[in-house]
Write a structure and sequence with these properties.
The protein is mostly beta strands and 286 residues long. The chain has strands at residues 8-12, 28-33, 41-42, 53-58, 67-73, 82-84, 88-94, 97-100, 114-117, 124-127, 132-138, 145-147, 159-161, 177-178, 183-189, 195-201, 206-222, 224-229, 241-243, 247-259, 266-272, 276-280.
Length: 286
Amino acid sequence: MTPFHKATTLLLFAAASGIYAESPQAQARLTVVPAEDVDWGYLNPARGELSPGAANLWGDRAVDTATGMLVRFDKGFQSPPHIHNITYRGIVIKGQMHNDDPDAQPMWMPATSFWTQPAGADHITAAAAADNLIYLEIDVGPYRVQPSSKAYDNGEHPLNVHADNLVWQTGGELYSLQADDIEAAQLWQSDSGVNGALIRFPPGFSGFIKTQANEFRAVLIAGEIDYRSAGAEEAVSSSSSLKAGSYIESSGTIEHEVHNQTDDPVTLYVRTDGPYIVKGNGKTRR
């Protein structure tokens, strides 16, 4: 089997050689970035080692485009009060994070917690654990840090959702979940039809996510999975292990095989503009 090297990108259509494979959906695309292959830099390069680490998973935070990135913080990090020129979403992958008004009492948010930070709103960001990692997402760039003196009200309100306050739904409530013990927490939806949700797989789950979208992006937030995609066995083997911080992207019709062989739940963040179905290889609700 071919190992991962940085981002493994597949064009799933008939070809004579290379990593191309046959697929009933012409020009379906798949990209997989394991956490250990993420290319790290600094969130604020001008500050060097004083800046949190950052890595684009998709897009480019320095230009006018939507972007998803990983950001990591040292223990004890606390930013000065500041604003951003754009609104962003944050999901905690590891550690304990606080993001709020500079005068607010700390609310330390663990893995799978979610927050939104409106453009122009004054705030601080702090980290308390030995290892702190978040997924940060913007719908338009560039991503910039600006002084509090430039604060303004853009009409949005910040949102902090501790992991304990997430509302999880099951297949009895959501058609997209057609496997036993799968849960989803809806996080946001835009007027353009793009939406974001967390999907939680129980220990021992074996099944797949079937997607049909122009944009399907998934970030492993908690746990570890064995992953491969239908039609992509040459590039992603069934023994390929993805850890928290790994990234999967596809377009077109793709089956993402997910196997949780651990004793802990697995949580996946999904951003998509199209439908998807989660099914198990065992018992499936009909």
